[in-house]
Write a structure and sequence with these properties.
Elements lengths: L1 H8 L4 E8 L2 E7 L9 E2 L4 H14 L11 H4 L16 H6 L12 H5 L4 H6 L15 H15 L3 H13 L21 E2 L1 H12 L3 E2 L2 E2 L5 H6 L3 E2 L6 E2 L4 E5 L2 E8 L3 E6 L4 E7 L10 H18 L6
Antiparallel strand pairs: 1-2, 1-12, 3-4, 5-6, 7-8, 9-10, 10-11, 11-12
């Protein structure tokens, strides 16, 4: 792993790298920025955390399942003149970015987060596809899922995350920003340390079980990783809050946050890797995420195949 560490250190935006195999840490490096136990903004990798909460909610009976319609839960914020297709949007559509509603990410993001009611704004977006249609990457859809969790349970999304994930995993998951109505931001700005994110990844690598205790419902990991649509930008398959790809000859599932906040899981190698990056805008930032994928495919995976000793 020494060569991997040297290659990683040469990436100016990469702040931290942790690699574990068979549950044991092979490499753990902080190159700059906060320490490895310091919670940092994981950006849209938050969507994978939210997917876990949805799965647990279904397993506990708080939600009925991925085919449950969201309109009855969010009725108070649906505009009176809403498109009838709003009644067909399901929890699974929010998880897989197939709600059909116009995006709130990209150029629409600023207007959305400046609005007085984020849930109502997201629900009032015009339909640009049918529910269950093409992937429309939209943090507004994830935020609707946070609102669904909050209203169906009567507890805040942070409270659920604390009770259902942080405490069982033994990690810190401090409060993150909320919308004007107090609903925790769904799908962005969660705060987790690199070591906490690794532990979350290990939960998925072990099919939802940690230290002999089942935390995610049986089958939820496979359901989350099963491709349901494809990113129009990267071409990567997308499931319930997780991207997938082939890398270094292996199937890889990953959480992806803006600027290079990455959690990679390579099941066949029993490998989990966390990469935390400087998220600030940069003229050449578009080359950083491909460099992280190359670090995995050309450095970490070959080193793991050779049985690299801990460093």
């Amino acid at each position: 792993m020494r060569q991997v560490a040297l290659r990683a250190e040469a990436l100016p935006r990469l702040r931290a790298l942790i690699v574990a195999r068979h549950g044991k840490v092979l490499a753990e490096h902080r190159f700059s920025g906060p320490g490895l136990d310091q919670p940092v903004n994981i950006k849209s990798a938050s969507k994978s955390i939210l997917s876990a909460l949805a799965g647990i909610a279904i397993g506990r009976g708080v939600l009925e399942g991925t085919e449950q319609k969201v309109a009855p839960i969010l009725r108070a914020d649906i505009p009176p003149d809403a498109d009838p297709r709003i009644e067909q949007v399901e929890i699974g559509h929010l998880l897989s970015m197939q709600a059909g509603l116009g995006r709130t990410s990209g150029p629409n993001y600023g207007a959305w987060v400046a609005s007085p009611n984020w849930v109502r704004y997201a629900l009032s977006r015009p339909f640009v596809d049918e529910p269950g249609g093409a992937m429309l990457y939209s943090t507004g859809s994830s935020h609707l899922l946070s609102a669904v969790l909050t209203r169906a349970s009567g507890r805040s999304t942070h409270d659920l995350a604390q009770a259902w994930l942080a405490e069982p995993l033994g990690i810190a998951l401090p409060p993150w920003p909320r919308d004007p109505q107090g609903i925790y931001f769904g799908g962005n700005d969660m705060l987790m340390s690199p070591r906490a994110l690794l532990r979350f990844g290990e939960l998925y690598r072990q099919d939802g079980v940690m230290n002999g205790r089942r935390i995610l419902p049986e089958g939820w990991v496979a359901e989350s990783w099963r491709p349901r649509t494809t990113s129009p930008w990267s071409g990567n398959p997308y499931g319930y809050g997780w991207f997938s790809q082939r890398s270094g000859g292996y199937d890889v599932h990953f959480a992806w946050g803006y600027g290079g906040q990455m959690l990679f899981i390579v099941p066949d190698l029993e490998l989990t890797a966390v990469m935390i990056s400087d998220p600030s805008p940069h003229p050449r930032a578009e080359s950083h995420v491909p460099a992280l994928h190359a670090l995995l495919a050309e450095g970490i995976i070959p080193a793991a195949e050779k049985g690299a000793p801990a460093r």
